[in-house]
Amino acid sequence: MKSIYSLAKVKGLAILLIGFIFSQSALAQTKTLTLKDAIQYALENKADAKKAKLQVENSEYQIQEVRSRALPQISADGNLTHNPILQLNALPGDFFGSPGTTVLAPLGQKWSATGGVTLTQNIFDQAVFTGLKAARSTREFYQINQQLTEEQVIERVANNYYQVFVKRQKLAVVDSNYVNTSKVKDVIKGQFDNGLAKKIDLDRITVKLYNINTQRQQLINEVQLQENSLKFYMGMPIQTSIYIPQTEFAVSPQAISETPDATQRTDYLLLKKQEELLDYQKKSVIAEYYPKLSLVGSYNYIGQGPEMPLFAKSRDQVYWSDYSTIGLNLKVPIFTGFGTRAKVRQADVEIRQLKEDMIEKKLSLDLDFENSKTQINNSIITINDQKENVRLAQEVLSDTKNNYYNGLASLTDLLDAENSLVEAQNNYTSALLDYKLAEIQLIKAKGELRTLIN
């Protein structure tokens, strides 16, 4: 019997050793992830952040496109025309020595080819000037939008980061509860083997172990799902193993005495810049009332004859000549059927709608700050209460264990004490999560989300 026990003990040690080796190997491949690391990784790899940077880059090309309308436009064109049947024109017979008669004579040649270069330069176009100003404002709009997108990425990553931490904490509580309950089971098993405990007590503690293990498996699944969500919001490969240090979850004081200026929040500044763009849009429509003046010049070369001019010579009766033109084009709008006026009024309505959005946004930002401040204060109170509650629950469990082992308490009392401790620990962890989520919202309300990576 003793040799069998020794063999089992050796096997157990071997399993523990193998598990330790595998755990060390897995740990070596695990990426330690602080909140700052997670946010920095997301800003460099998440698709939303990358797309926001590309929009800023694209705004430079939009400026170049609008600027091109103020620069000379040069084009080359050519055409080749064949006239199988020449048009007959009724001409006075005097040209052909037959006064008083009308002669039908063809004009032109069977073939003609033309090639030339045309230059157009806007001299005055109010829409172009307005477009240049709007393009520069568009670049600023996308720069602010990039900043807002990065703040949104930071917020999502921070929220999911702390949720992963809390679920892991709850899993640690369940693991600790399982270990403690297993020890109690071993004691009851020994008492039962010696005839000092009832079988129903052993069965009850065994059932509880099964329930704890089931709860543990559910939490393992929840942790994995939450980790996958975090890695998704970071733009990290889902297969990557991550580890979140314990030190990352501390309750730190926040300055919440003064209400921040909501008009300096990125959300509000983006609407402000959008209002500026809508104003330029309105001005570009008004520009349709202005005259437009442009310079046009062209130089052309033409060949005509009875043969295809491209490869023919003068001996084939094909003749080439050049000609050029220079002129000014002036376009003065007089009446557009009130279409321009309607477009101006539509643009004005869009501006007024945006102003209402700005008022609503400011109220929303102020509301977020007040709510997060209230949540912070409530969470601090709850954290302190639950911290004390955990301490008391641990004392109660310790006393109940001693009483149970000495026959002064029932198994029901012991199980209730264990449940109370687990509940207190989970409540404390949930209170920490509520605090950290409220802290993120408070930092966001103050426009300081980027301080999380400083």
Automatic annotation (TrEMBL):
User: Is Cytoplasm one of the keywords UniProt gives this record?
Assistant: no
Give the signal peptide as a residue range, or say none if absent: 1-28
- For the keyword Transport, the answer is yes
- Cross-referenced InterPro entries: OMP_efflux, TolC-like
In this entry, which stretches build a coiled coil?
A: none
Q: Name one GO molecular function term.
A: porin activity
Q: Specify the domain of life of the species encoding this protein.
A: Bacteria
Kindly state which keywords UniProt assigns to this record, in alphabetical order: Cell outer membrane, Membrane, Signal, Transmembrane, Transmembrane beta strand, Transport
Subcellular location field: Cell outer membrane
Instruction: Report the main location listed first in the record.
Output: membrane
Q: Name one GO cellular component term.
A: efflux pump complex
* Pfam families, sorted: OEP
User: What PANTHER family is this protein classified in?
Assistant: OUTER MEMBRANE PROTEIN TOLC (PTHR30026:SF20)
Q: What is this protein called?
A: Outer membrane protein TolC
